[in-house]
Write a structure and sequence with these properties.
This protein is mostly helical. The protein has a single domain, classed as Up-down Bundle (Na+/H+ antiporter like fold). Helices cover 76% and strands 0% of the residues. It contains 17 helices and no strands.
C-alpha cells in the first residue's frame, strides 16, 4: 500500500465515522425520549454500524480511529479529576473507602473462584495445570472489579445529578480504577510467577511503583502547564484545542516510553495516561484559581466528545465474541453482579450510609468499558499463547456489562432523588448533555 492509499483509506474511515456519529447524535435524542440514557443510544448506534451488524465501520476502523479514543479518554480523565473536588468529597471519604474495599474484595474473590471452577468448561484452560488456572483466575478477578468512569460521568452529567449518593458513586468509580490499576499490576506479577514457575517477582513490583510515581509527577506537570495556558486568556476555541492536544500528547508520550523501554531495557515501562490526566484535572480543580474556566472548557466540548467516544466504543464491541463464549460469559456476568450487590451494600452499611442508598447503589457500578478493555488487551499481549482467547471471554462479559449498566445507573440516580432540573444553582459547572445533543 502506498502512502497516498493509506491516507486515502484513513480519510474515508474518518468521514464514515463522522456520518455515523451524526446519526448517533439523533438516535441518542430518541433514547432520551424513551427514558434511556444518551450513552445507551450512542452505544447502540456504534454496535449497529459496526462489524457485527451493518458493517458500516469495519474492524480496522477501531485502529484507524485510535486518536479519537485517546483524545476522548484524555478528556474523560480530565473530567474525572475535576470531579474530585475535595471540598465536596471530604465528607464522603469514609463511604468511598468502605465501598471500594467491599467491591474490590468481594467481587475479586467471587470472580476468581468462579473462573477457577469454570476452567473445565473453557477450551483454552481445561488442559492447564492448577497453577496456570489460578493465574488466569486471579487475572479474571481483577478485570471483573474494574468500572467505567467514562460511562458514569456521562450519565451523571446528562442528569445533572448532585448529592451525597452521586458524590460517593463518582468517588468510588474514579478512585476505584486507580486501585484496580495497581491491583492488576501486582496480580500480573503473581500470575507471571505461577505460569513460569519462577516465583513472585518483587523487582517487578518496584518497577510498577516507580511507574505510578512517575505518572503522578507527569500529571502534576501537565496540570501546571494547563494552568499557564488557561491564564493566558486565549480565545476559548484555541484554549480548548490546546487542552485536548495536551491530553492526546500524554498518550503519545506513554506509547513512546513503552516502545523505547522495550527496545533499550530488559523490562517494559508503562506510564498510565488516564492517571496522568486525572491528576492534572484534580490539580486544576483543587489547587488553582482556574477551576471555573477549566470546567467551562470541559462543559463546552463534552457533548461531541461523548458522542464520538461511546459511538466508537459500540462499534468496537464484537457481538460474535459474546456468542462464542455464551454460558461462561453469562455466568461471570451474573457472579460479578452478585459481588457488586454484596460489596456495595456491605461498604455502605459499614460507612453508615442511608439504607435507601445502600439498597440501590449496586446499580451504579455495573458498567465496564475503557479500563477493563485495556486490561483484557494487556493480558492478550503479555500471554500470547492463550491471551487472545482470554481477552475474547473477558470482552464478552464487558459487552454485557456495558449494555446493561447505563440504564441501571440512570434508574439508581432517579431512585436516590438526585436528578437536578435545568437552571439549578451552579448549573454552569455541570456538563450539559441535553436531549438536543
Amino acid at each position: 500500500m502506498t502512502l497516498f492509499q493509506y491516507y486515502q483509506e484513513t480519510l474515508a474511515v474518518i468521514a464514515g465515522f463522522a456520518l455515523v456519529a451524526l446519526a448517533s447524535k439523533e438516535i441518542g435524542r430518541f433514547f432520551v425520549k424513551i427514558k434511556l440514557p444518551l450513552v445507551s443510544g450512542f452505544l447502540f448506534t456504534g454496535i449497529l454500524a459496526g462489524p457485527s451488524v451493518l458493517e458500516l465501520l469495519p474492524v480496522e476502523a477501531a485502529s484507524g480511529l485510535r486518536f479519537v479514543d485517546e483524545i476522548s479518554l484524555a478528556f474523560i480523565a480530565f473530567a474525572a479529576g475535576s470531579e474530585l473536588h475535595m471540598k465536596k468529597l471530604r465528607g464522603r471519604l469514609r463511604s468511598i473507602i468502605c465501598t471500594i474495599s467491599g467491591l474490590v474484595v468481594i467481587t475479586f474473590i467471587l470472580g476468581s473462584v468462579t473462573m477457577f471452577m469454570l476452567c473445565d468448561f473453557i477450551p483454552f484452560t481445561k488442559d492447564m495445570p492448577v497453577a496456570s488456572r489460578i493465574a488466569i483466575s486471579i487475572l479474571s478477578g481483577v478485570i471483573l472489579v474494574a468500572r467505567s468512569p467514562s460511562s458514569a460521568i456521562a450519565v451523571i452529567h446528562e442528569l445533572r445529578a448532585r448529592g451525597p449518593f452521586t458524590q460517593t458513586i463518582l468517588g468510588v468509580t474514579v478512585l476505584g480504577d486507580i486501585v484496580v490499576i495497581i491491583f492488576f499490576a501486582v496480580n500480573s506479577s503473581i500470575a507471571d510467577g505461577l505460569l513460569t514457575q519462577m516465583g513472585f517477582n518483587f523487582g517487578f513490583i518496584l518497577v510498577v511503583l516507580a511507574e505510578l510515581l512517575v505518572s503522578l509527577a507527569i500529571g502534576l506537570f501537565i496540570g501546571r502547564l494547563l494552568q499557564v495556558i488557561i491564564s493566558q486568556k486565549f480565545a476559548r476555541s484555541l484554549t480548548t484545542l490546546l487542552v485536548l492536544l495536551f491530553g492526546y500528547s500524554v498518550f503519545f508520550l506513554s506509547d513512546f516510553v513503552q516502545h523505547q523501554s522495550q527496545a533499550r531495557l530488559s523490562f517494559e515501562i508503562l506510564l498510565e495516561p488516564l492517571l496522568i490526566c486525572m491528576v492534572a484535572g484534580y490539580l486544576l480543580t483543587n489547587h488553582s484559581k482556574y477551576r471555573h474556566e477549566f470546567m467551562t472548557i470541559l462543559h463546552n466540548i463534552g457533548p461531541p466528545i461523548y458522542t464520538a467516544f461511546f459511538t466508537l466504543t459500540g462499534a468496537s464491541l464484537l457481538l460474535g465474541d459474546l456468542a462464542d463464549t455464551g454460558l461462561v460469559a453469562l455466568a461471570l456476568f451474573g457472579v460479578r453482579l452478585i459481588g457488586i450487590m454484596l460489596g456495595a451494600f456491605a461498604g455502605g452499611a459499614v460507612a453508615g450510609d442511608p439504607m435507601s442508598h445502600n439498597r440501590v447503589s449496586w446499580m451504579a457500578y455495573i458498567t465496564q468499558a475503557g479500563i477493563s478493555l485495556a486490561l483484557a488487551k494487556d493480558v492478550a499481549v503479555a500471554f500470547p499463547e492463550w491471551g487472545s482467547a482470554f481477552a475474547s471471554l473477558m470482552i464478552s462479559v464487558i459487552v454485557l456489562n456495558q449494555i446493561v449498566g447505563p440504564p441501571f445507573f440512570k434508574w439508581a440516580i432517579h431512585l436516590a432523588g438526585e436528578v437536578r432540573p435545568h437552571g439549578d444553582e451552579d448549573d454552569h459547572l455541570v456538563f450539559k448533555l441535553p436531549s438536543t445533543l
